[in-house]
DNA sequence: CATAAATGAGTGAGCACTCACTTACATAAA
DNA sequence: TTTATGTAAGTGAGTGCTCACTCATTTATG
């Protein structure tokens, strides 16, 4: 059985690789993420970060020289390292199951990645927010996430289509529909302020996607 | 034939009702919206607004006493007046067509409202951004948009279901899927920075939704 | 000529960021 | 086991700058 690292662990590992970050620095990163998610990056002061981290303001600036660097330190590893790893692990996991039906694949994908999405909605919020504003960040995300999706998801979809289990719609549209359906679900849960709803609706998502992506 | 007001006109009407707003004030509103969409609300200074509007900084403050009031002036009519009116018009338009098939309804809905979405993506961006940050704005949107959707879309869906043309999934999920599919399409177009793609993909959206929302 | 609209230099509050200094810790000599 | 010493981590009062907002004055309008 392939191990399926969760995000928290993966993020910790990435941080650990970065030459032993001291405890207070991790508190700073955690406090930053929490506050950015709650209030937005631009509305969060470095004093607030220091206070929530239980740290002096100067400490916030020890490792990262500007507030922007701090933001980048949170977002970049998420996009360039954590996400690829998690997608790769999913692909491996699927590869071990032979002759999946469309329904089985979707159920596996959604249950697996939906949990990921919900757990990391904090980062997701911040990422979406900044992507709406910064064109260069959009570019960076496209150039990282795009290839990952193509490498991990497209082969699976192609195989499924060869078994006459999948719609003839282009792969990129299939991915758009799957990802979009999941993303919408988190956003609605966030809108309603109740993440229990998120889980309850998952069976509906699977049923809808299963039917919508069936071959004619 | 029912007139289908576009957003710009509707917005102008709402503004006109507000007791004759002078030309320069409209320039301020337009400049604000453009800048908020480009850079985000928090990253936009009142000086920038004044410059783009071709106006002194004091003028920005004549009608709206704070920057937040200015934002509210842009978002509130959109949510409370413009959106309801446009949804109402769509419902009326659909009501005139008897015995719609699911495909016809979806095609009408998506072509109609997708154009709306694309045209107003500027406001949409700002709205999404602020909703991710302000809990009270989320509340306001829910309490306005929710009932509108229920009143305009649910009856149409119920009728369709009575004709055995629609899935048994709950109405709120059907709406989630329709809206989410459209929203995802704008967001991807925005991500790729090419709104021509938005239109090209519409036939795919219709095909996917038509199939996904068919009865078993 | 009265009232509303517009101006833009000015103001003070709050913010990101700095830096001289203190504390914690590791290694090693006494 | 103490003491010395170098290095990295942490501190928080201080600084200068940006920005939202004001107001005395000027300009348009009916």
Give a description of the structure.
2 copies of one chain form a homodimer. Chain A is mostly helical and 216 residues long. The first copy, chain A, has a single domain, classed as Tetracycline Repressor, domain 2, CATH 1.10.357.10. The first copy, chain A, is 79% helix and 0% strand. Chain A contains 11 helices and no strands. The longest helix of chain A is centred in the middle third of the chain and has 29 residues, at 67-95. Chain A is elongated, with a radius of gyration of 19 Å. The two termini of chain A are 35 Å apart. The model of chain A has no long low-confidence stretch (mean pLDDT 91). Chain A binds chain B through residues 39-40, 42-43, 125, 128-129, 131-133, 135, 138, 141-142, 167, 169-170, 173, 176-177, 179-181, 183-185, 187-188, 190-193, 201, 204, 207-209, 211-214, 216, and chain B through 39-40, 42-43, 125, 128-129, 131-133, 135, 138, 141-142, 167, 169-170, 173, 176-177, 179-181, 183-185, 187-188, 190-193, 201, 204, 207-209, 211-214, 216. The structure holds a DNA duplex (30 and 30 nucleotides). Chains A, B: It comes from Levilactobacillus zymae. Chains A, B: Residues 22-82 form the HTH tetR-type domain. Chains A, B: This is TetR family transcriptional regulator.
Low-confidence stretches of chain A: none
**Shape designation of chain A:** elongated
**Rg of chain A computed from alpha carbons, rounded to a whole number of angstroms:** 19 Å
Largest interface: A-B, 42 and 42 residues
Assign the structural class of chain A, choosing from mainly alpha, mainly beta, alpha/beta, alpha+beta, or little secondary structure. Answer: mainly alpha
Largest beta-sheet characterization of chain A? none
Q: What name is given to the CATH topology of chain A?
A: Tetracycline Repressor, domain 2
Task: Tell me the series of helices and strands of chain A, N- to C-terminal.
Answer: HHHHHHHHHHH
Instruction: Provide the CATH architecture of chain A.
Output: Orthogonal Bundle
Query: How many H/I helices of chain A?
Result: 11
Q: Could you say how many structural domains of chain A there are in total?
A: 1
The end-to-end distance of chain A, rounded to whole angstroms, is 35 Å
Arithmetic mean of pLDDT of chain A: 91
